Every structure is written in C-alpha cells, then in structure tokens.
Amino acid sequence: MGSCGCASKGGGFSCCNKKEFVQDKLCCNFTLTDNTETTVYQTNVSVCSLVASGFIKFCGPANSTVVVNFYRGGSEDGTVVSSFTVNEGSCVNFTVSRFDTITVTGSEEAPASALEGEICLTPRYPLPH
Q1: pTM metric for this prediction
Q2: Which residues pair with 117 in a beta bridge?
Q3: pLDDT of residue 47
Q4: What percent of the chain has pLDDT above 70?
Q5: Where are the alpha helices (DSSP H) in 8-102?
Q6: Of 12, 18, 13, which is closest to residue 4 (Cα–Cα)?
Q7: CA 15 to mean position of chain CA atoms
Q8: 2 with 13: CB under 8 angstroms?
Q9: For residue 126, what pLDDT band results from cuts at 50, 70 and 90?
Q10: Which residues contact 12 (CB under 8 A, 6 or more apart)?
Q11: What's the rounded Cα separation, in Å, for the pair 81 and 75?
C-alpha cells in the first residue's frame, strides 16, 4: 500500500487534493473548400492540464474523408499527439489530453465541392489559483 490514509472520522482519503475543474462545451460547424489544413479549435489553456472529449462528424460529399490532427504547440511548429481519419457520413468519438490545437484537412482525393462537418468538444482543466 502507498502512503495514503483515511482522514480522521471523515472516511475520505487525505492524499487526494480537492481540485476545481472548468468544463466548457462547444459545438461548431466547419466547411473546407479544398484540402488545406484548417484550424477548428485552439486554446491558451496550459496543455499539461487539458483533457477533452467529444466527436467529429463529417457529412461529405460522398466518397471523401477528412483527417483530424490534435497538436501540442500549435499546428505550424507543434507535435501531433493524436490523429484519425473520418469517412463521409460518419462520426468519431475521442478523448485526448495535452493538446492546444485541432485541425481538419480534406483528403487529396476529395471532390472539388465543399467538405462539411461538425465538431463538438468538452474541454476540462483545473482552475488556476
């Protein structure tokens, strides 16, 4: 066993500090008109404490995909911490930590018409003291 013990008469653990977290929720639509990388979310919260869950829905057009990248340090000079592809007409759920930017890129073989989708995100991070 570790060094955690029960708080006197309270029955709780004394080794866990109480933390207050902010939990935001945002949803927005995106439209890509070509296969360039487009930022759909960016934050200035410390990446060490950020955890987010949500989904990306990609509406199409038919036979197309988008690539979703989560970056630490921004999309130009940062590191990709998670990446996945979303097919037309589908939705991908995610939980990712330690990132500050989300981008969406249309695939090379995407049709010339606009690529449309939606991102819904619930970021959580502790309140600064």
Answers
A1: 0.79
A2: 30, 58
A3: 82
A4: 81
A5: none
A6: 13
A7: 30
A8: no
A9: confident
A10: 6
A11: 11
